[in-house]
Amino acid sequence: MRTLVMAAAVLLLAGCGTYEYRDTNAAVDANPLCASQPNQPGEPVSRDCEREAGGRWSSEREGQPVDFKRTPGER
Question: Which pTM value belongs to this model?
Fold first, then answer.
């Protein structure tokens, strides 16, 4: 019973928005220019070599609205 309630809650919340997760660790590891680290503390790091992980919740709907109007003669 509990599983059924949790599944229903997940389905209801799935239509409320989207969650986008972003992680740049793999891209930084694959970039050979990011292999060397700065020598001094506070020394700037290239923007391509910054490691970031995080997410963003979006409740905005993207896309075109659906038109449910029928023209005469359509079934």
Answer: 0.45
